[in-house]
Structures are given as C-alpha cells and as structure tokens.
Amino acid sequence: MAFATYPSLKDRVVFITGGASGIGASFVTEFHAQGAKTAFVDLKPEDGEALMAKLGGKAWFKTCDVTDAAALQAAIGEAGQALGPVTVLINNVANDTRHKATELTPEDWRKNLAVNLDPVFIAATAVYPMMKAAGGGAIVNISSINALLGPAELAGYVAAKGAINSLSKTLAREWGVDRIRVNALSPGWVITPRQLELWLTPQAEADWMKLTALKDRIMPADIARTALFLASDDSKMITGQNIVVDGGRT
Ligand SMILES: NC(=O)c1ccc[n+]([C@@H]2O[C@H](COP(=O)([O-])OP(=O)(O)OC[C@H]3O[C@@H](n4cnc5c(N)ncnc54)[C@H](O)[C@@H]3O)[C@@H](O)[C@H]2O)c1
User: Fold this and answer.
1) Which of 15, 61, 185, 190 most suits a substitution to test ligand 1, by most atoms within 8 Å of the C-beta?
2) Were 24 and a residue from 63, 92, 143, 156 both cysteine, which residue would form a disulfide, CB within 3.0 to 4.6 Å?
3) pLDDT 10s per residue in the chain (250 long)?
4) Closest residue (by CA) to atom 40 of ligand 1?
C-alpha cells in the first residue's frame, strides 16, 4: 500500500496531547514524517524522550499533565514560541479505565471528565488566538465509537466522548468565520501496546471481527493518516463532523 504526502502539512506547527505512546505516538511520527513542526506533551517523560530519540531530536516535547489547565496553556504557549503559531491541534489524551456507574463517586466522576473532556476545551481555546492570527487552523478532537455504542462500565469516558462530539460541532460553528475547522475523529478498536497488554485476547478479537465489515486490525497509523487528512488543506471544507474509522463496526 502507498499513502499520501500532504504538501500543506510541511512546516505546519502541530501540537499533540498524549503523544508519547499509543495512537498519540503515531500522530507524532506521521506528522513529523510529513515535515510538520511537531510538538507534543505527555505525562510520561521516559516515553516522550524515547520518542524524541527515535525522531533524532527533531520534534518538541514537554512533560505536562493536561489536567493542569495552566500547565497545558503554558505548554501550548511555549511550543508556539519555539516553533511558530500552532495551527494544528490534536486533542488525543484520554483514560478509559473501566468502572461501574454505581461505584463512581462524585470525585471520581470529576476526575474522569478532568482527563477526558476538560483538556479538549482548554487546549482548543488556548490555540484559538494563534490560529485566528495565522488566518486559520484545524483542530482534531479524538473521540471514540463508544460515544455511539454506549458500552457499559465506561460512564465517564463515554459521556466525555459524547461531549467531545458536540463540542467539536459548536466550536466549528463559532470559529468557522476565522477559518478554523474543528472535527472529531472516532476510532474503533485500535491495537495499541496498552490494548495488547490489557484487553486483547483471541476471544475478544474474534468477537470484534464478527461485528466489523473489514477483517483487518485497526492500527494506530490508520487513525493518524485520517488525522493528517483532517489537518491538511485537502479537507478544507470539512468541519463540525465526526469521522469514524472503525472498519465498518458502527
Ligand atoms: N485504542 C483504542 O482502541 C481507542 C479506541 C477509540 C478511541 N481511542 C482514543 O484514542 C486516543 C488515544 O488512545 P490510546 O489507546 O492511544 O491511549 P493510551 O492510553 O495508549 O495513550 C494515552 C497517552 O496519553 C498520555 N496521558 C494520559 N493521561 C495524561 C495526562 N493527564 N496528561 C498528559 N498525558 C496523558 C499517556 O501517558 C499516553 O501516552 C484517546 O482519546 C482514546 O480515547 C482509542
């Protein structure tokens, strides 16, 4: 198979949250390969530094807990100072820890939204002035097909992902006049190291494959390539959408 190169992504400044591992690392790698000036933050410095080393140091990384709004805003500002105005934002961080709804305390619920929803809004509003001044930009908010399917024991995560879909739509309307596009990107089951470690059993995979149209595993790069398209000028009239990449599961 051969995949696209997007001339519009060359030298574009991209900021990715949770970029050190999983699908986030694929966003970082794929944007970097397109010649974009790629910045990412993550909670885990070792993973971030390891990815930086793989890229020959030619990206921008900072350790940052995105649940700390001031730290996230500061990191976006620093990346903008170092690389130029951020005109692509990939809101990727999430935590899909399972819990029964009845066992979730009000504090747990708040913590869930603090990691799965709040940083999406904080980062989007932090990049807005840079994108507006630059004449436009693209925000891709990573959602999930679980917002459409509503599986049990994921109340906080699913509620946050549903909110991300709606938030993407309202920001798209509010900021379209500034040529800022805002889309949600909803993966199906993507085979990351964490999924391999925690959830991927032969039975679970066979059950998934019965329900999908396409019978190949969805890999992080399949999601990243869709994000490249949504960030590039090739998708210049796509905004306010939820793009589903799930092999035909939903
Ligand atoms: N893997 C899947 O099957 C799947 C399916 C649907 C949607 N998604 C979505 O794709 C995105 C990426 O998922 P993934 O599977 O790669 O996740 P992951 O858990 O493997 O990776 C998440 C990354 O975010 C970082 N992170 C976590 N909390 C953070 C915080 N507070 N501050 C900064 N960094 C933090 C982690 O260190 C890690 O590098 C998420 O939005 C997830 O909801 C994934």
Assistant:
1) 190
2) 92
3) 999 999 999 999 999 999 999 999 999 999 999 999 999 999 999 999 999 999 999 999 999 999 999 999 999 999 999 999 999 999 999 999 999 999 999 999 999 999 999 999 999 999 999 999 999 999 999 999 999 999 999 999 999 999 999 999 999 999 999 999 999 999 999 999 989 998 899 999 999 999 999 999 999 999 999 999 999 999 999 999 999 999 999 9
4) 94
pTM (whole model) above 0.90: yes
- For 25, residues 6+ apart whose C-beta sits below 8 A from its C-beta are 19, 47, 51, 220
Indicate if 6 belongs to the active site. no
The full set of domain ranges for the chain reads 7-245
- What is the position in ligand 1's atom list of the atom closest to the CA of 223? 10
Among the four given CATH numbers 3.40.50.720, 3.90.1150.10, 3.40.50.1580, 3.10.20.30, the one describing domain 7-245: 3.40.50.720
